[in-house]
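INFO worker-7 received task bundle
INFO bundle size: 2
INFO processing item 0
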Amino acid sequence: MLQRTGAFLLYMLMVLPAMAQLNPKEGKDTAVHLQTLNTVQVTGWSTGKKDNQLDVAQSVGVLTAEDFHRNTGLSLENSLNLMPGVSMGARTSFGGQRIIIRGYGNNTNFNGQGVQVLLNNMPVTDATGTTILDDIDFSTLGKVEVIKGPASSLYGSGIAGVVNLFTLKPQPGQTRIVEENSGGSFGLYRNNTRIETANEHSAVLFNYGHQEEEGWRTNSASRKDYAQFNGDFYVSDKNTVSAFFAYAHSMEQLAGEMTDSIIYHRIVWSDPAYLVNGSKTVIESFRAGVTDNYRIDDHFSNQTTLFTNSYTLNQPFAHGLTDNQAFTFGGRTGFVYASDTGNVTVHGIIGAQFQKTIAFNKSYNLTNGVLGGIKGDLQNASQGYSVFTEWKFSLPSQLVLTAGGSLNFTEYAITDMLANTANPTHANQSGDKSFSPVFTPRVSVLRLLGEHASIYADVSAGYTPPPTSQVINAVLGTANTALKPESGIQYEIGTKGDLFASRLSYQLALFDLDVHNKIVSEQVPASGNTPTYTTYVNAGEQQNLGLELALSYMLVNDPRATVSLLRPFVTYTWSDFKYKDFYSDNNHNAATVNYSNHHVTGVAPNVLNAGIDLQTHAGFYLYLTYRHVDAVPYTFDNLNYARAFNLLNGKLGYRSQLGRHFSVDLYAGADNLTNCTYYSFLFFSGNLAGTTDPHFLPMPYTAAFYGGAKLAYIF
């Protein structure tokens, strides 16, 4: 494979400079803004300035407000899943999200692990490595950046990659009041009221949103309320301070998982065990952060963010009730150096991040909706901290060299509040676990092929520590001291560019992501006075070989023409992900099952997305997207597959400026126009425990329609 890849890149190295000459010189001076897939500006420490992605030596996907406008914008899945190499699912209509990047993140059936998510430079992923997105108001996002694969030299732990969320920014020199209302199938209703203003001294936005849906299955309703403030304040020519505050209340009812027989017979069914306990997830949260950007002199600058968030989570489910409270706080800082001597440009960062999560986790018996005795009462203190650095050198011959790494520390401390004289037979679950410091390096080399294309090679390492639930054995009351973090190293080569007067944008990446010390659950049979229990062990490796392609071509981009914009796009992902030396446990006895050379669960071999964006001079627009997902194994033994599906979504609308003070956007759309059978979330397991073992959380079997109106008054 690497030989074929090298030949391909050598071909591109020879051909792309010639193709770049096809861009007419006047294309750089035209007043028409060419909206292409990969010339979206990327901001971050890795570049130190706004820049396109041509000199970024790794695969980075970007979504903007235009991408969110293709659908309701109320959830992120329909937008993020159009990105090659990325899969996002949800356990409920608008909650329980899990993000899988390049096949990593599929080792959990609940909230994602191995993916670092940040919102306006504030970590959403807590110190335990768990990411909960139920309380994020996706309708207020202005941009999303996805770094695929380890990005430890800037973000510390996390093998899968990084998802950076950025909220909307006010229009410069403008004050607006925005009112948006939308509704749709299954009782969907959403309201947003937003006030935004920006002048030479500040940019401020406040948004309140209310959202509800009755759901398409019994006990699948959703209710959400959001309040959000973010502002940028220009203190001086050298100093800008940004602030963010958000409150959210989220309620997502749980209807339970289905078997393949139920979903593929298109039966509308809810699990009676969930119904009798009134199963749901209720989260109330507060999030705040302040970022200071300070330019020390012409070469040095600093960005420092202090953040905190807290939440309560109450979840009655089929077999009990959990009642959690968590409080997270920390800081993130980086000193940036930039220098341009003419022959060599240097951009470097030295930074650090600290984060601590204090959680109070209680669990109770719950039978037929009647609350029983307490089962668990744990106080968890988890903290992670890292120091990192990354240096980028722009050298002669249009070469760019990037090198860096991070040193990462993780510590857990758990106190069992039920371990007292009133419970003499209770196994004490208290314990401490400090993982050995882990150094994760990254190095890459890139060559610019003129002003419109580049080619690169990148090697990066990452690691993912296990969550506290895997570190402590609840039955034995002991710390799992032998458990190691999962580690990974990714080899990637690729090319990206915008050709033919920037009409054609492309990204192509080939990668090999090797993960070691994969963690699996192991069931230990009862022995003597010890009941059957589940523990976690390092039991194997995983090799992910893949290819990702993104293409976009601007057929028409002329605001004066009848059809002012016509842009087809395609993204394709090929995945050959397999378990290597991978077992059901590390006992290696007669009961051990060998899963080696089986396909990785939850990953389709082929995923194809295609779409077209059409806009007219009169203000009408049409968006169509098509998604094909191959059959997917959901058990390690590969004996059980979710069927392939084809999803067609569309949106039609009209938006226009009405005079000096009003703008309007009227729209109607539908998801699943062809009434296909597909799922929003798959549960994974070693094998199929029985014919009634449920693994599917389905989407509605028929099209879901929506429509709405957004009106803005401009002062």
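INFO item 0 finished
INFO processing item 1
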Amino acid sequence: MWRALGFVVALAAGFAIFYLGAVSPPPAPATAPLDQFSAGRAMADIGAMGSASHPVGSPADARVRDYLFKRMTALGLHPRVQRARSFATYGSTLQGATVDNVIGVLPGRDSAAPALALMAHHDSVPGSPGAADDTVGVASALETVRMIEGRGVPARDVLVVITDGEEPGLLGARAFFGESSLSTHVGYILNMETRGGGGRAAMFETAPGNGADIGLFRRTAAAPSSNALTVFVYRHMPNSTDFTVALGHGKVGMNYAFIGRQFDYHSPSSTPAALDQGAVQHMGDEVAPTAMALAFGPLPGRAPDVVYGNLIGDLTVAYPATFGWAVLALAAILIVAGAARARRLGSLALSDVGRGAAISLYVIALCGVLLELLRRATGVPSGWTEYRPILAQFPLFEAMMLAAALGGVLAAAALAGRGRSRAAAALVVLAAGLASSLFGGVDAAGLVLGAVGALLAGLAFGAPARLPAAWTGMLAVALVAGLAIQIAAPTAGAVVAWPLSAAALASALAAAGADRRALAWGAIVVVAALTLAWLGNLFHALLQGLDLALLAVLPAWLAILVLWPLVARGEGAASRRARLWPAAAVVLLGAILAAFIRFHDPWTARYPNAAEPLYVVEPAANRAWRASALPPDSWTRAVLRADGGQVARLRLPVVREPLWAAAATAVAAQPPPVTTRMAADGTVLVAASPHPDAAGLWLAFRSSAPITAVTLDGRPTGLAPKPGSWVHVRWSGSDGFILGLRGPLPKRTEIVAGELFDRWLDPRPLGAVPPTDQLWDLAGSSLVIGRVANPLPLRPPPLRPGG
């Protein structure tokens, strides 16, 4: 009973400590002292800029640009607008636009000194007001520079660089660092981003050689939130922000974002009213003090990357990566000390340590298959928009995943205490692995983990696992894992080394669980609670950051290092009667939550479903469709079928993915204003001049012969078209471009254009949108498509929906 009580106390205390450290701080009002960052003051700018969608090239984006110019002028920043044509190539797609970067300069005492740049972007994605992404970053930069100016003349120039066109391809940052002379003046960057609508801001990216950066961060940030694992992982992910472009030009600095409330990310619901003002406050609490130190003091130099992270609350530690060997050595000493004390007490046989090691690996397999099983059982597919039913009820999803992980831990402990339970342990993990393939097709990960777990069951559960030996074996496996990470990725080593060291300390104090005194077990409960709080942050971050259920195995496996003495049964008859019902009850709770997520309609006025009806017309063929890029819900399906057509998949060259569409009444429309001509050198020049009220122009081309070079306005694009494959150009705004295609047989090139308008051209209106739906991305827009005449006399086949 006292073990169960200790487990409950450790679990409850750990959750409480985690939760108190994870919530955002209260926002400071607009009346806060002027030397403090105020979310209330920042919200005035957020309300002015983030109340309506303002994608790059739109009139709304121009209004935000003009607002920024006036605000910077009022702050004495001598603003200027950098207008540039910028593009980026991603595989077979080119994204481009004319961008308007707004750049302000607060002069410092030494104008020759490298400048500090506060950076964010002012455009949003289509359909989203972008109150968070990235109006929060813009407003935070303005409030921070106001604080710097209020303190006096800084030691160096402070630049406020608000880029445009970040969303379609980091276009403004590419123009600033590639073309602006001011970019050479930048010595250090603090970039602010968001990927959600709330939560504590984290400093998640640095330039390589961040030792001095982290020292500055720890000294200055009022409420630091960061760790070396995040920086390490982000460097190996394909994600990018404006800071990515800066790093590519040799710049240094730090990158900040918050990722809570991800339902609102890139969503129409990302409004000032829905924004967590505490998240804005925490962004300022992290960035403003550091910016103040940089503006009035020296810039940090380059030093080797360090291992660092929050322990509990705002306490952040850092040390050289090589010191990780000392941390692991200390853990090893503590493990040996605990095992030696247990052996002196007659409670540890070294021959049984291997059983504990096998149990540790079995826990990985069992927790892994349970996490996979319940995630797949929700029926929610992977993908950003597909994932939104989970984002609409994310706390339930987290509770479900926690139940899967905790159930796996409790089941392993019960099976270990029952003695000869090889068959039961193998059946449990194998059945869970097979069951995961019942949802969404064959689950290779679940099958592999189930099979491996069944094999491990033969090694782990041949006899009762005595607590000291099992715990020591588990710690030994974690030590090996820590050594492997220290060798392969030393800056990420803390993710295992820190909880391992805590568990090793508890083992040493309690003689690997053989010491029965209340003081020893009290130490286990305290260490467990603190470690679980730390692992709670890791678990929460992994679930928020990536939709990969198996990643949650890591904190679950590390948790067992401190939980094992509290969940494992003692020796004797009571051990052999260890029951599986607590584990089964926890997993059943997780299954109930998975079923609820699967069958419950999550859409409400606060969390509405995404709907994207689009009107597509092909004037030359006198036909049209009502279409949707997203799987249609009942309202959208009714919209698509308004003219009596049946919904089917529609493929159009200018749209990269098939649409759901039904035939509609065609309206008279001007074809996309795209023409072609042959240059003297044989290059096909495709001139796109959208109508003044167009939101953008999409172009698709393919050739049966190789196209050897593609240029845009005479500049190389990096596109490498494959014969017979469509290549896409997406240009935002109405200013147009000239595309050059060069190849041996240009007359075989097919070109299709689509002109985008942010209004509904169909004479039959959309109708009222139900409160449980929201118009997403290009919803309510119209796309006028047509084949572009080839520069040589040809008879191209008619454009067919199949492409």
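INFO item 1 finished
INFO post-check item 1: The longest helix spans residues 518-545.
INFO post-check item 1: Residues 92 and 727 are 5 Å apart (CA to CA).
INFO worker-7 idle
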